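Notes from the 1:1 (GR / supervisor)

We went over the backlog. Supervisor wanted to see one worked example end to end before approving the batch request, so GR pasted a single chain during the call. The sequence is below; no edits were made to it. Supervisor asked that the structure be written out right there so they could see what the output format looks like.
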Amino acid sequence: MKSDIEIAQAVEKSSMKKITEIAETVGLSGDDIEQYGEYKAKIKFSTISKLKQQSNGKLILVTSINPTPAGEGKSTVLIGLADGLRKIGEKSIVALREPSLGPVMGMKGGATGGGQAQVIPMEDINLHFTGDIHALTSANNTLAALIDNHLQQGNELNIDPRTITWHRSLDINDRALRNIVIGLGGKTSSIPREDHFDITVASELMAILCLATDINDLKSRIGNILIGFTYQAQPIYVKDLKIEGAISTLLKDALKPNLVQTLEKTPALIHGGPFANIAHGCNSILATNTALKLGDYVVTEAGFGADLGAEKFLDIVTPNLDKKPDTIVIVATIKALKYNGGSTLDELKDENLATLEKGFANLQKHIENMLLYKVPVVVAINKFATDSPNELNLLKELCQKQSVQVEISDVHEQGGNGAIDLAETVVKATQEPNNYTRLYNDKSSIIDKITTIATKIYGAKDVELSTQAQTQLKTIEKNNWGNLPICIAKTQYSLSDDPKLLGRPSNFTLHVSSISVRLGSQFIVVQTGKVLTMPGLPKKPAALNIDINNDGVIEGIF
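Structure output shown during the call:
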């Protein structure tokens, strides 16, 4: 069987449409886009402004159960669903996040779908694409350099170096840079202090890029970034340094959504890429709002499981969108549920109804969680060749008992044809009553908001704050920054903050290690357990499989 990259390259050579042709399918001309070669483009700000007068299409949010080593294929199902909608005559469009080099070169691999359900050009999207993440890295580190230069040049704002909260960033997993000391080398080398690196997708600038509605909003948000405090404990913002314009200038092109296509020529907007376990995990508001003007059905994604990405999409992103979701699709696989039920990776190919039923508790909790938002829910069973008819029937029966629609998807093998039943069911679901309701009120206390997410979404019995988190909470409350939504950084592998607790854990405590405010992106980050904002590479990273030949053909990206 061909690998994902071989399938993508075969289509790229034989039948890939020029990006101007893809633009035409959604009513855009060559004057509406800025081409990055023949197969990639950005949508101009003038075009986005012009489209605001058009009505919105339907919005479909795709999420999943907690990820496992067995794989869930959320992006694959999303792309296949969009292609399937086109197969039944609907004008669909994809809205996805951009991949980060961290997972591409690390453990997860690429993030452009798989098999016959992919976005292309696959190699470009997974690597440098149109340079958005590189621009974010440069902007992030330019801000860091300007802060240290201010300290070196007399520190007019009286910033206490010990309180600086702005970290440097890099778009690759590099554990050696998590905690560093800078400014060594004498008086000409700035002020010695401890510093840190985050992966770029965890930078507040990434969150801001994905939440900003235009250049002015971007600039305003960047100006409001909290960078530290004075020796008198007064907050210092980027606007105090008067550099928000310079930082925004570095992001002027990165703010424009990227237009590409699926293997089946469905238009796709791919823009922004915050991780859901350490950030809010959704593509940009600009891309989603623009897609809603261009398509009758927009299929978008929230990162990792529904406890992370979907919760943040519904509680942080949706209030800033022009549209509430019309349907939520939860992706699950037989293999992943059996893994949650206690089967080992070696046993997943064998039929086991007992571990499937036990592992269903994980999917059941995600279904219950999504129904809390009072939006119609559909379960998509991402079919694998090893799934037995008995297992598929059992899972369908278990889902139906939860009063949700369920369909089998076989898009990895069949592309859009494998999602026709799913597409028809999703279209019907978008016509059902929808009373979208957020989980909490922003005006509630920070502790109440954290506790609401922990107990209602994760299933925790209570929340415990570290001494550091308690001190940080007092600072946030003292400065009246508490009326913001909550963005919890948590392991993606479990509903709890312990990655080893699979299935549907209960009677556990959510351990909060730190709480920090993001005044530019306008949410409060609550870090739990041992989740890291700068991941490390595994013993055998995916980079070991990637190569390029003398003709420039890349192989090994998966």
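Supervisor's comment: Residues 446-528 form a domain with the Formyltetrahydrofolate synthetase; domain 3 fold (CATH 3.10.410.10).
Batch request approved.
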